[in-house]
Write a structure and sequence with these properties.
Layout (H helix, E strand, L loop, with lengths): L1 E7 L4 H11 L5 E4 L10 E2 L4 E3 H8 L9 E6 L3 E2 L8 E3 L5 E5 L14 H19 L18 H6 L6 H9 L5
Helix pairs in contact: 1-3
Bound molecules: zinc ion (ZN) (2 copies).
Length: 177
């Protein structure tokens, strides 16, 4: 499997480097492409957040089309209309996903910064969204990275691997974690 990461309003070079190091154990090829697209129309001034579905739609118009699975990585706070916030969104059985690290920072909740926790949370949310890309739904097993997370505690509690069931389903699509 190939993965293309598109940083979009994303300024944390060290986190990107650390994520690349980990994701290269999972994917045959991981590439980073810097893009410059206008996403102002995805911003809600009322919510002070960006509408993730519209960001994915905008990125899908990129030419040339990026290869493999395409992950947009951003610092922007994301929403979909029915939820107060989301950590990420992915197309089921598609190629595109977006993950925001905005609410994965420990300093969003406490005054303390914790880089290793930020890396672990970001890694989990990325493989979770990529799991949706290969058709995985939410899983009830807390050890499984496909468990849903609406709050940061849930991101921390769940594991960073697939459970046996999700592992089997993902493996059929070439995604081995
Ligand atoms: Zn999910
Ligand atoms: Zn599972």
């Amino acid at each position: 499997m190939e993965l293309t990461i598109l940083p979009l309003k994303f300024a944390n070079d060290q986190l990107l480097k650390d994520l690349l190091f980990r994701l290269r154990f999972v994917f045959e090829k991981v590439e980073v492409i810097n893009i410059n697209i206008d996403i102002e129309h995805t911003y809600s001034a009322q919510r002070r957040q960006f509408y993730s579905t519209k960001i994915i739609e905008s990125v899908k118009t990129l030419n040339p089309v990026p290869e493999g699975f395409v992950l947009i990585l951003t610092d922007m706070d994301l929403f979909v209309p029915v939820l107060t916030h989301i950590y990420g969104e992915a197309e089921y059985n598609g190629r595109y996903s977006v993950v925001s690290v905005c609410r994965l920072h420990e300093e969003f909740y406490t005054s303390e910064s914790n880089n290793s926790l930020l890396l672990e949370r970001s890694y989990k949310e990325i493989v979770h969204e990529l799991g949706h890309n290969v058709g995985l739904k939410h899983c009830k097993d807390w050890t499984c990275v496909m468990h849903s997370s609406s709050g940061i505690e849930e991101v921390d509690i769940k594991g960073n691997l697939f459970c046996n069931v999700c592992h089997g389903l993902a493996k059929d699509k070439g995604f081995v974690l």
